[in-house]
């Protein structure tokens, strides 16, 4: 109860209420005492009741697709953690399919729940645009990865730079060129990784092999590996995600191709299992959880009509995690 928190913190019930409602006229040391008392008493305010009293919802909505994939799932984790840290709950809805009517129905259902704002986590421009245009006018919204125009804030992984880092790593190891197993053609993130791969090879004056198209799954990576195993002279492959890289490793093993002695392989995502594959996988690590956190920060800036953090990067830049699936020629 608020009274218990007030007694432990040595303040009035009104002061506790002001802290809960983020009132600016509370001294920082007083705020810290109240928050510490809440933690010690495991006090959890009823966010929905607070929203009703203040005529403001404390729920954020999320429309997401492909949430079983590592990247979107980790982004959702980041959204949930960031929202809770700011005193918000999260409602996540997933369309039954990627067609327009399903997305429209999902957006309408979410809007009916009186959320304070919405994060749209879709990999395609068309799906994101459909979802955003289906929301009520004036409802704050932020997109992850794809946005229809500059009017909608978007938080993104710098996919192109991540691909450049992967290819540059392989070229620096002495490989003449790098083959690429891409994600689906209709995915913006997959296409950006293709663009980064191709641009890096062209700028280095290297030949650009044909793209082998996958679908993010280990099975498609396995099929790509069997195809590449039949081509002579391949020494380096950049897979657009770690699951496809896993399939590549299996196919190469079955065909007697050693990694990294014969072929070096780089993935993308740094899934938790990447360091335990045989060999441990060199990969690109994008901070998907940070994308979720930035999406919430950006959305709540719109909800509260505050200025956005000018230091927040427009893109989250990935890093290289070097393990034993790559080696010098």
TrEMBL record:
Keywords: DNA-binding, Transcription, Transcription regulation. PROSITE patterns: HTH_LACI_1, HTH_LACI_2. This is LacI family transcriptional regulator. InterPro entries: HTH_LacI (IPR000843), LacI/GalR-like_sensor (IPR046335), Lambda_DNA-bd_dom_sf (IPR010982), Peripla_BP_I (IPR028082). PANTHER family: LACI-RELATED TRANSCRIPTIONAL REPRESSOR, LACTOSE OPERON REPRESSOR. Signal peptide: none annotated. It comes from Microbispora siamensis. It comes from the Bacteria. Residues 1-54 form the HTH lacI-type domain. SMART domains: HTH_LACI. Transmembrane segments: none annotated.
């Amino acid at each position: 109860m608020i009274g218990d928190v007030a007694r432990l913190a040595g303040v009035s019930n009104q002061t506790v209420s002001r802290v809960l409602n983020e009132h600016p006229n509370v001294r920082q040391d007083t705020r810290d005492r109240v928050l510490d008392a809440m933690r010690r008493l495991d006090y959890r305010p009823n966010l929905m009741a607070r929203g009703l009293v203040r005529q403001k919802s404390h729920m954020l909505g999320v429309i997401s697709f492909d949430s079983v994939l590592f990247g979107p799932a980790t982004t959702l984790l980041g959204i949930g953690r960031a929202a809770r840290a700011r005193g918000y709950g999260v409602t996540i809805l997933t369309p039954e399919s990627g067609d327009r009517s399903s997305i429209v129905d999902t957006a309408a259902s979410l809007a009916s729940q009186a959320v304070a704002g919405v994060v749209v986590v879709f990999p395609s421009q068309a799906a994101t645009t459909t979802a955003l245009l289906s929301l009520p006018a004036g409802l704050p919204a932020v997109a992850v990865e794809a946005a229809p125009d500059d009017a909608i804030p978007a938080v993104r992984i710098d996919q192109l730079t991540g691909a450049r880092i992967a290819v540059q790593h392989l070229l620096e190891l002495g490989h003449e060129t790098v083959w690429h197993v891409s994600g689906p053609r209709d995915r913006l993130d997959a296409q950006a990784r293709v663009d980064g791969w191709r641009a890096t090879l062209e700028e280095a004056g290297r030949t650009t092999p044909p793209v082998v198209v996958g679908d993010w799954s280990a099975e498609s990576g396995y099929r790509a590996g069997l195809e590449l195993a039949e081509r002579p002279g391949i020494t380096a492959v950049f897979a657009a995600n770690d699951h496809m890289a896993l399939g590549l490793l299996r196919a190469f093993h079955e065909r007697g191709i050693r990694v990294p002695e014969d072929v070096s392989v780089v993935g993308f995502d740094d899934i938790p299992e990447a360091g335990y594959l045989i060999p441990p996988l060199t990969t690109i690590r994008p901070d998907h959880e940070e994308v979720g956190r930035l999406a919430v920060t950006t959305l709540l800036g719109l909800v509260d009509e505050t200025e956005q953090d000018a230091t927040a990067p427009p893109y989250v830049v990935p890093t290289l995690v070097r393990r034993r699936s790559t080696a010098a020629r």
